[in-house]
Each structure stands twice: as C-alpha cells, then as structure tokens.
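User: what does the whole thing look like in 3D?
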Amino acid sequence: MEEKDFIDKMDRLKKPGFENNPPNNMLKLAIVNSKKSAAMGVWFLAVPLYFLLMVFTKYYFNVNLHVIDIFEDFIASLERSPATKFIAPLFFIGLPIIGIVINSLSIMFFEYDKKQKRINVSIKLKWMNILILLASIGIVLSFMLYLITENLHH
Amino acid sequence: MNLRWFVRKGFLFFPASIIGGLISIACLAFCVYLFIDIDSRSHSASDTLINFVFMVLLVAVVYSIIGYFTSDEKTTNK
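Assistant: Here's the predicted 3D structure for the full assembly of 232 residues, as structure tokens:
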C-alpha cells in the first residue's frame, strides 16, 4: 500500500520544463565568431593604417618616402576606369566599415524576451574585438572628416 | 555551405585543403610577379619595398577575405 502511494505521488509530480529556466541561463549565441572577426578586422585595417603611417612620416617627421605620390598615382590609375573606380573607397572606408559591423556583431548578443516583448542586448567584453572596433571607427571618422573638409574647400 | 579550405591560427589563414593550397600558391606567385614588376619600374630599393608592401597588403586582404568565408569555424559565445 505504501509503495502504491509513493508511485502515485511520483506520478503527480510536475516535470521540469524549459519554461522554468532562469533568464540568466538562457543560451545566447553570437552572430559571428569573435576570433575570426578580430583576425579579419586586423587585415581590413592594414591598408588604411599603412597609408596613415606614411602620411605621419611625411607631415610630422618630415620623412618623405614618396608613398603619398605612389598612392595618388595608384588611385588616379584606378579612377580612370569606371570598373576600378570603387576600389580606393572600398579599401579606405568600405573595409573598415565592414570590420566595424562584424566585430560589433561578434561581441553583441541578442535575446528576445517573449513575455515582456523586449530585446535584450548584451555586450561581451572581448578586448581584442573592442580595440579593433575602436580603431576601425577612428579610421573611418578620420577619412570621412578628410573627405568632408576636402569637398568644402573645392 | 561549410567549406574547409583554410584554418585560422591567430590572425593568419593557412591552407587546409588542395584548393586552399592552390590559392595560397597563386597568391605567392602573384606577389613574386608584383615584386619583379615593381622592381623593374622603381628607382631605388626603398621605392621598390614601399610599393611592394602596399601591393602585398592588398593581396593579403583579398586572401584573408577568401580565408574568412572558407574556414569552417563554429560560432560560440565563449
């Protein structure tokens, strides 16, 4: 009799479900891989950083390595043809912008709360990604500022 | 589509299949061609190197883009 009571009691027990999980244990997935994005971000920054390094050596240290002239010739040769006209803006602004997007997505986690109808966004502190993100933002802003000031003068 | 042509180690993408190897060899061969071409037109060693580094960076960016899309790496939140 006692055993039957025990089995009945066990049958009546509520089974644990997914809905009882506390919110902090919810699975959060990043949209892109963070280490891969960091690697890509570094390569996307390489060309504009090389260009900026050469600009600094010319104007701040007065060491003219003729890189600016080489860049100007190279960009002029690209702009002559409509098929290659997009390459220079792509390398100096487009790729750092893509770097910003992929590095942001790799450290941000999105989670939709159905009950409260809200999207929770959390940012994981991955310093390499954040550093590359900030460097990319800096480069894009500096090139944008240069373009704005250059167009204001002409 | 999960391609495994490259594997990432740090910031570099290394070939992990025959196609990846062929792409790497093609990039290296193109860099050698660029060096010879730039060297034939430049006036000094620094002129050659500065031009060559810039062109190698462009090739490396394109190579890394291929590596990024063709290296199978799981997305984790670790």
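In plain terms: Chain A touches chain B at residues 28-33, 35-36, 38-40, 42-44, 46-47, 50, 54, 65-67, 70-71, 74, 91, 95, 109, 124 (CB under 8 Å). The longest strand of chain A covers residues 108-113.
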